[in-house]
Design goal:
By secondary structure, this protein is α/β, with parallel strands linked by helices. It has 3 domains: about 140 residues, no CATH class; about 190 residues, no CATH class; about 140 residues. The chain is about 60% helix and about 5% strand. The strands form 2 sheets. Strands 3-4-6-5-7-8 form a 6-stranded mixed sheet. Strands 1-2 form a two-stranded antiparallel ribbon. A hairpin with a 4-residue loop joins strand 5 and strand 6. Helix 2 crosses helix 3, helix 6 packs antiparallel against helix 7 and helix 22 runs parallel beside helix 23. Keywords: Membrane, Transmembrane, Transmembrane helix.
Length: about 575
């Protein structure tokens, strides 16, 4: 099948206006998503970067933290941002984290749309997705989007070989000075693209491009080694030990997590990304999709694929979210291109100018075994790539994804649709089944009524003692499950003690005075103060019993109407499942 044609039409006013709008939204979101940074901020990872920016701004030698990928250039940028912020942690975090993180990420996503001449709606979808869903934590992970934006195989850069060669050399060198980890991964991704994914260039050009990329990486390493030698007197042996051997030693005993699709974290938030990331990562590499997407989308997909090592090492929301931007961009681009090519002509020219028939299903292809083959590929890629507690898992994941895409698209012919269907079934069914399993786990683990059940258990006997047999009582202001648990009814039509509950004062106060409400079970203070209500209760009721449940942190008061006469008042505490008399605090 022929490669999708890269569009070189003018950008147009509408696209430029869309890009400008994205820039404004990114700036506003970046500012309004920042809170005032307090002392706890300065004790965390972001706080460490803030302090390192501060000491670098004061003239300290830039660090080389290869465990986390930070390099000398990144600390100079941090120092500049520190100076712009005048030392304010909040303004520094706005610049370093929000504006140059998610904000710049959204702008770069829209800029990718400009280069690819995407429809404005697709540009907005990509930008908002990066801004709100796959949100880069800080400036470090916008480098990924910058990389693909610069190296997209389309536009004027491709028509100027010398400029393109300079970019392929200088970009890895620049990124090496900023973040070594990303320089290694993204250089590798671009090399894989040139060798296995690019269709519009001859082999000689593609190999030369790989050499230029590798040369740029080596250039960054050599220039930095020389700079440390000349400027700070660090020997080449010490630099080698810190940069290369130190990195290896640091990760020698590192633990790589296994990605359990059926045991997602229970915390609230955006953990759904953990459920979808492995499967969304592989969708562009399904053979049928891989055939139909452009070279630019292939580059974006490969760059997102090699970054998988980051969340595999740390299976959590921040690390998964922050590297998901390229995965999201690749998905949106693939969907847009598949939509444009949903009715391809029967014959179209390939990249060499020859004609090639578009694959059509025939009865000679047996779909079920081929679908099983595709399902096996997808399942094996997921299980091996995300299941091995080793760096080897990430390597095999990349290898299997690329092998399935390239070999499948090249050799399956008319069988590509059936194989791809089987792969897509796995990539859709596994997270769907995991979601159902997750709901079951939450249902079993939920403690939805644990507080009301505890109240019914420990305060129930006190209610029976104080009520004198009546089954009418008013529960306020919460834990309405007690009506069923204690088998009582509400003698009033009121249940929700909201902020404008005072509108019922004229009706409720007479009931409180004449004893129409024989018992009140107060489970907690009112969220919105109602002085008229609390005054009426204290004037007409006596606290028959106070039950303090330490484990749940609640104190339940059973009030009985004063018309019932004197009552035996009790104040008990439930501690470690035992009833003990409440001890008044010493004065």
């Amino acid at each position: 099948m022929a490669a999708p044609v890269e569009r070189n039409e003018p950008v147009g006013t509408v696209r430029w206006a869309t890009f400008a709008g994205v820039c404004v939204v990114a700036l506003v979101w970046s500012a309004y998503s920042v809170g005032a940074q307090n002392g706890s901020f300065l004790t965390q990872d972001f706080g460490a970067q803030y302090h390192l920016a501060e000491i670098t701004a004061r003239g300290a030698i830039p660090l080389v933290d290869f465990e986390h990928g930070w390099n000398a250039g990144s600390f100079w940028i941090n120092a500049a941002l520190y100076a712009i912020a005048s030392g304010s942690p909040t303004i520094w975090y706005f610049l370093w984290g929000r504006l140059l993180g998610a904000g710049l990420g959204a702008v770069l996503a829209a800029a990718i749309g400009l280069r690819l001449r995407l429809h404005p709606a697709v540009m907005i979808a990509v930008a908002l997705g990066v801004l709100l869903l796959a949100t880069p934590l800080h400036i470090k992970y916008t480098i990924c989007l910058l990389w693909v934006f610069v190296l997209l195989p389309t536009g004027r850069l491709e028509s100027r070989p010398r400029l393109a060669a300079a970019v392929r050399v200088l970009l890895p060198a620049f990124v090496f000075w900023q973040y070594v980890e990303l320089a290694v991964l993204l250089t590798g991704a671009s090399g894989l693209f040139e060798l296995f994914a690019r269709r519009s260039a001859p082999w000689r050009t593609r190999i030369l491009n790989c050499v230029q990329l590798a040369g740029g990486f080596v250039l960054g390493l050599v220039v930095q080694a020389v700079a440390y030698k000349v400027l700070w007197g660090l020997s080449f042996a010490d630099f080698n030990r810190q940069v290369i051997l130190g990195q290896t030693e640091t990760h020698e005993s590192a633990q790589y997590a296994a990605w359990n699709f059926f045991d997602l974290p229970t915390e609230s938030g955006r953990f759904f990304i953990l459920a979808l990331y492995p499967f969304a990562l592989l969708i562009p590499f399904v053979p049928l999709v891989w055939q139909r997407i452009s070279d630019s989308t292939r580059l974006v997909g490969l760059a997102g694929l090699v970054l998988v090592v980051v969340p595999i090492r740390r299976v959590d929301n921040p690390h998964t979210t922050t590297v998901s931007a390229l995965v999201l961009v690749a998905l949106v681009l693939a969907v847009a291109e598949l939509y444009e090519r949903r009715t391809p002509p029967s014959v179209e020219p390939d990249s060499r100018g020859t004609s090639e028939s578009v694959s059509k299903p025939t009865r000679s292809v047996i779909p079920l075994p081929l679908a099983v083959l595709g399902a096996a590929w997808a399942a094996a890629t997921l299980w091996i790539g995300f299941g091995l507690q080793s760096m080897l898992g990430a390597v095999l994941l990349v290898a299997l994804a690329i092998a399935g895409a390239t070999l499948g698209a090249a050799f399956l012919g008319r069988a590509v649709a059936a194989v791809s269907a089987g792969a897509l079934v796995v990539l859709g069914a596994v997270p769907a089944l995991a979601a159902v399993d997750h709901l079951g786990d939450m249902r079993r683990d939920a403690k939805s009524f644990v507080v009301s059940d505890s109240i019914a258990r420990w305060a129930g006997p006190e209610y029976e003692r104080c009520s004198g047999g009546t089954r009418e009582a008013l529960v306020m202001p919460n834990y309405l499950e007690l009506y069923d648990a204690l088998e009582i009814t509400n003698p009033t039509p009121y249940y929700l003690f909201h902020y404008d509950f005072a509108q019922y004062e004229d009706v409720l106060v007479p009931q409180l005075e004449d004893g129409s409400i024989p018992v009140i079970i107060e489970t907690m203070p009112l969220h919105t103060p109602q002085p008229w209500l609390t005054d009426a209760i204290r004037a007409n009721y006596v606290p028959c019993s106070i039950v303090r449940i330490e484990k749940q942190g609640v104190a339940v008061t059973v009030w009985t109407h004063k018309s019932r006469g004197e009552v035996d008042r009790r104040d008990v505490t439930i501690r470690d499942g035992e009833r003990v008399p409440t001890v008044a605090p010493s004065k």
